[in-house]
Amino acid sequence: QSALTQPASVSGSPGQSITISCTGTSSDVGSYNLVSWYQQHPGKAPKLMIYEVSKRPSGVSNRFSGSKSGNTASLTISGLQAEDEADYYCCSYAGSSTYVVFGGGTKLTVL
Amino acid sequence: QVQLQESGPGLVKPSQTLSLTCTVSGGSISSGDYYWSWIRQPPGKGLEWIGYIYYSGSTYYNPSLKSRVTISVDTSKNQFSLKLSSVTAADTAVYYCASSKYYYDSSGYYGPAWYFDLWGRGTLVTVSS
């Protein structure tokens, strides 16, 4: 069982927006602005999409955005494209004992 | 541009030690710009962080794996390595090496930035007799 809770799957049509939630606790997501999000296509390595809750690395489309409220972080993808179909994982710093926790992953299907 | 490449045996027997190496190219481990990490993913499952190392040898480990894990660095070869002892079938996974920027701020914090910006392609390790 993963430390962070994500929905197993979400779906949307091209052009629509979707949001993936990532629920943790006051020991991880709620205490630190150190949430990151990763996109993983089948058979490929994960790719960093969002870091420090809402920052985008160079080269990542501005269709991807992140936010946080309390113990829940969210990844929003606007203007869905077929290439966005992938698994998405959230990750958070969890303090000086546990350090790093991941969510169980969400499969995004573009209909 | 920094690139990471994992290498090591694809098959390990139960109770033995899994050993993997990550070779860093396009940059120097000794630059101190990054922390270096291992992350694994069992087939069809999610990601699990294993641990971090800095070029100085400073480490952080996942407490659930700490008793079985050793991460080391060889700056002369620009490599860092993972050893996982007493493996079982549950340790079957794709093992990734990854990097996190070295971070420091005005509050006095210094250490990894706690996100993984570069990843290797991963290597599948199967634990089976």
UniProtKB/TrEMBL annotation, chain A:
Specify whether tRNA processing is a keyword of the entry. Answer: no
* One cellular-component annotation, GO: extracellular region
Q: List, alphabetically, the Pfam families matched.
A: V-set
Give the GO terms filed under biological process for this record: adaptive immune response
Q: Which Gene3D superfamilies match?
A: Immunoglobulins
Query: Where can this protein be found?
Result: Cell membrane; Secreted
Record's keyword terms, sorted: Adaptive immunity, Cell membrane, Disulfide bond, Immunity, Immunoglobulin, Immunoglobulin domain, Membrane, Secreted
In this chain the Ig-like domain maps to 1-90
Stated name of the protein: IGL c4022_light_IGLV2-23_IGLJ2
How does the annotation summarize its subunit structure? Immunoglobulins are composed of two identical heavy chains and two identical light chains; disulfide-linked.
